[in-house]
Amino acid sequence: xxxxxxxxxxxxxxxxxxxxxxxxxxxxxxxxxxxxxxxxxxxxxxxxxxxxxxxxxxxxxxxxxxxxxxxxxxxxxxxxxxxxxxxxxxxxxxxxxxxxxxxxxxxxxxxxxxxxxxxxxxxxxxxxxxxxxxxxxxxxxxxxxxxxxxxxxxxxxxxxxxxxxxxxxxxxxxxxxxxxxxxxxxxxxxxxxxxxxxxxxxxxxxxxxxxxxxxxxxxxxxxxxxxxxxxxxxxxxxxxxxxxxxxxxxxxxxxxxxxxxxxxxxxxxxxxxxxxxxxxxxxxxxxxxxxxxxxxxxxxxxxxxxxxxxxxxxxxxxxxxxxxxxxxxxxxxxxxxxxxxxxxxxxxxxxxxxxxxxxxxxxxxxxxxxxxxxxxxxxxxxxxxxxxxxxxxxxxxxxxxxxxxxxxxxxxxxxxxxxxxxxxxxxxxxxxxxxxxxxxxxxxxxxxxxxxxxxxxxxxxxxxxxxxxxxxxxxxxxxxxxxxxxxxxxxxxxxxxxxxxxxxxxxxxxxxxxxxxxxxxxxxxxxxxxxxxxxxxxxxxxxxxxxxxxxxxxxxxxxxxxxxxxxxxxxxxxxxxxxxxxxxxxxxxxx
Length: 591
Prior knowledge:
Elements: H1 14-24, H2 29-63, H3 70-119, H4 122-127, H5 130-172, H6 174-221, H7 223-228, H8 232-258, H9 260-285, H10 290-331, E1 352-359, E2 368-375, E3 380-384, H11 391-398, E4 406-411, E5 414-415, H12 421-426, E6 428-432, E7 440-441, H13 442-446, H14 455-464, H15 468-472, E8 481-482, H16 491-505, E9 509-513, H17 521-534, E10 539-543, E11 555-560, E12 563-568, H18 570-576, H19 579-590
Parallel strand pairs: 3-10, 3-11, 6-9, 9-10
Antiparallel strand pairs: 1-2, 1-4, 4-5, 7-8, 11-12
Helix pairs in contact: 1-10, 2-3, 2-5, 2-10, 3-5, 5-6, 5-10, 6-8, 6-9, 6-10, 9-10, 14-16, 16-17
């Protein structure tokens, strides 16, 4: 019975995927070669058993009239049993070695993927779906783990078996060998045509699976939005459309690939029939013994079996290479350019200046145009403007998530591109609109940016952030475990915890990006009060749509279409009766 296969599509460049896969196994070559050697010896050992059984038949036939030669039969049987045991033992040892290699190799791949994620630029995550990346890390590596062992074992065992059987069959009867080879060649030709016809379906399958995973992730994480907009039916229909496409392509790929098995069986049985007829004729003529015919038929079976397994393993090999190709495509993605710190800032004052900065995400549509601004140490700077004005892009450039197309940014008169990215990012603490907490205790989450912080430091930060009383009211206080989705605490409490996390890290400068947009009015007042404490004496950047929250900012930069069109404090900008006043008054009227 053929082994089940796992389809992961077909590699776009099979030859390149194979070469890359083999190169990636370099550190495991000795173990793999050892396993292959044991498999080869096991296959060779197993080749002699049909010959021995045939000789036992001839001994029984020749000695039947005078009495069976039990000594000769027992000797042959003992050798056959010994060969069976040796072959089985070698196969077991080889399987254990490959199991260990596969486990270590896939563990290494997962480590490479995780390491790669940490070294990719933010632009990659902005342009690639999370579901597809997750599919490469989980589904594709799982396919490799489940098929690599099978492919290596089957290829080495089957190739040696085919070669060895052909040699023994040729030594037994060349005419019968020709009959067997002809039937096998006809089978290979027909199966090759079928496989070629099925290729286009294998190409679609893994790509569709990546799309499906993205939809699953989006639907799961967006359930509140989906339900609140009564969009369940449309979401299900959209998912069902992709799911049906995946099922359709997988079914067609499987149907055509599995068609190779019955076709091979037809030609195999045809070979048996012809071999029995011609072999029987040779026995009657005395050109071959009955035992050799018996052995030959067993060799025909052993000749056809690896051919069948190769036919049924075609999809498995394609799946392995396709999965490996997708993983290696990800690990070969362009990383964030290496940066060598030419300078460092010993004591941060907090003076930030933008010098004629220009930037575009796609190098076609400008987002930031000739942006210049000077922020003095300790100033609280608010950046306001309509959606798409470039507010968050300014922060992305300041944190070196992206590099300007032209112009430069300085901190304390030092260009940030002469500092390491780690140093630049370490100068800022960020509180974002989207809160992120990992599964772990509250204390562990608050120490995320400062692992060396003491428990007293954590409690002090929580008090400054107005969240200490909330934490103390929880069943296990600071040792309360936040679950995977962090849904055992409210949105407002999560936001206060992210503020406390920044306070614990104690950075010299702060960035607050729409940090109060998703909380209730009471929590907003708590967050604002915490901000006033933690921004005191620190240069801080605040992005806010609620203009009432930035009235006390030292400097307000009003942006529109990537440019600063107004700047000043709240009162100064209102007196100008310009764009800021228009924005503020419109919100005031709405309130």
